[in-house]
Amino acid sequence: MDAAEALTLLMSHEGRVDPYPTYERLRAYGPVVQAGPVFYVVTGHAEADGILRDPGFGVLDDALRDQFLPGWRESPAVASISRSMLRTNPPDHSRMRRLASGAFTPRRIGAMRDVVEAQAGDLVDAMVARAAAGEPVDFMSEFAYPLPVGVICALLGVPAEDRPLFRRWAGDLTGVLEPEITADELAVADRGATELRDYFGELIAARRRTPADDLTTALVQVHDTDGDRLSGDELLANLVVLLVAGFETTTNLLGNGLVVLLDHPREADALRDHPDFAPAYVDELLRFDSPVQLTTRVSGVATRYGDLDLPAGSWALLLLGAANRDPRRYPEPERFDPWRPQVHPLSFGAGPHYCLGAGLARLEAQVAFPLLLRRLPGLALAGQPRHRTRLTLRGYDTLPVTIDTQAAAPHRGTPAGAAEHTP
User: Fold this and answer.
1) Bridge-partner residues for 318, per DSSP?
2) Which of 174, 297, 338, 398 could cross-link 284 (Cys pair, CB 3.0–4.6 Å)?
3) Does residue 413 register a pLDDT over 80?
């Protein structure tokens, strides 16, 4: 199997559900492999990290979209993503990112811990109540989705009663992030984008009438004061992306991470007893089974990575999930090891496009996993979880679990003395 055949396998149903064997096939050709005239696939950690930080590389801009995706402006999904900070280059990217970054400072995220703990505790209570009938509980719909969507919606000022709407809409829209998409899949993504844009259009109008202490109001006021700082299209696109990115990655992190922990009972027991180990655990979970598996960059200048010269205009497919398992960076990368030193996963990217909400996602996972293990000591998989057939955003569609309701612990704070332990 050559590199092009391996890449075809990666895009197949089998490859999307479990991409890791295919990553190793690609890695055999080197950390950077040419798969087309100006198309390169990157599996190396150092190379992917370098490209993400290299100012000579950028995301797909309007000129290239016009060349490779004629008619893209007619697609609500592509247009929404393209007008956001996710798919723009400096100076537009820097301008838009600055406007939202104040809501995601380390101080503000740290101040949200009590809120996250309270929401997570309430969700565990609800899971225990639902399990009382003796049936399995879907962890994805009962915990992994409502926790992060509740947090990001609170930041944006989305009413609690509207939050159940977003899982399907976002799931439809994010199909446009896949490296390959059919016309039917694009139509589904367009439907999700239209519904999200319509919703936020109404929320923007509501915040103009009645301002609130939330990020939506802050961005609306920036636009209304100075449209050059944030245009109307940018306002709408960034609200959609902030919502979707604010829970999709974390939802996948929670589902992927729980399966790993249940498959590694010794490590799960250590985290249950010592919740202050959580930051190291979360970083290793991000490395081991990344919720974001890939991204792309385009070179603006000729450069060299690995043993290859990349001409200007080259496309680089950065396989973040493969880079996180590069044996040159992490010995025995296929082994889950929360005590592994110096773990710096690329799951949230690197460089100017490093995920704005990475700190918030980490906080939610650091709170959730010790809480779940402590309060639900009998938590176990109930049959085979079902993966979504997505490659870019890797996660579970359903994750049924059983709960020993007799063993479930009451909702309370972190055990005394936990902070005395260090990993």
Assistant:
1) 42, 295
2) 338
3) no
- 400 contacts: CB under 8 Å, gap ≥ 6: 136, 137, 138, 139, 381, 382, 383, 385
DSSP 186: H
What's the CA gap between 363 and 109, in Å, rounded? 8
Alpha-carbon gap, residue 323 to 293, rounded angstroms: 9
* Spatial strand order in the sheet of 137-138: 137-138, 400-402, 380-381
Cis peptide preceding 91, ω within 30 of 0: yes
Per-residue pLDDT at 271: 98
Summarize pLDDT for 10-55 with one digit per residue, the tens: 999 999 999 999 999 999 999 999 998 899 999 999 999 999 999 9
CB pairs under 8 A, 24+ apart, for 23-29? 23/319, 23/321, 23/322, 23/325, 25/1, 26/319, 26/322, 27/322, 27/326, 29/3
371-395 as b/e: b if 16+ CB within 10 A: bbbbbbeebebeeebebbebbbbbb
Task: Name the 3-class secondary structure at 398.
Answer: strand
Task: Please list the residues that pair with 315 across neighbouring strands.
Answer: 39, 298
What pLDDT score does 422 carry?
A: 29
Q: For Cα atoms 397, 403, 408, give the angle at the middle one, nearest 5 degrees.
A: 135
Please give the C-alpha separations between residue 13 and each of 97, 162, 423, in angstroms, as whole numbers: 35, 33, 39
* pLDDT tens digits along 299-310: 999 999 988 999
Residue for token pair 């190396």: 44
What pLDDT, in 10s, does the model give residues 306-324?
889 999 999 999 999 999 9
Q: Which residue ranges make up each domain of the chain? A: 3-416
Q: Flag whether pLDDT at 344 surpasses 90.
A: yes
Can you tell me the distance from the alpha carbon of 355 to that of 361, in angstroms, rounded to the nearest whole number? 10
CATH no. of 3-416: 1.10.630.10
pTM of the model: 0.94
* Helix 358-375 vs helix 278-288: crossing angle, to nearest 10: 110
Q: Which two tokens stand for residue 393?
A: 């955003």
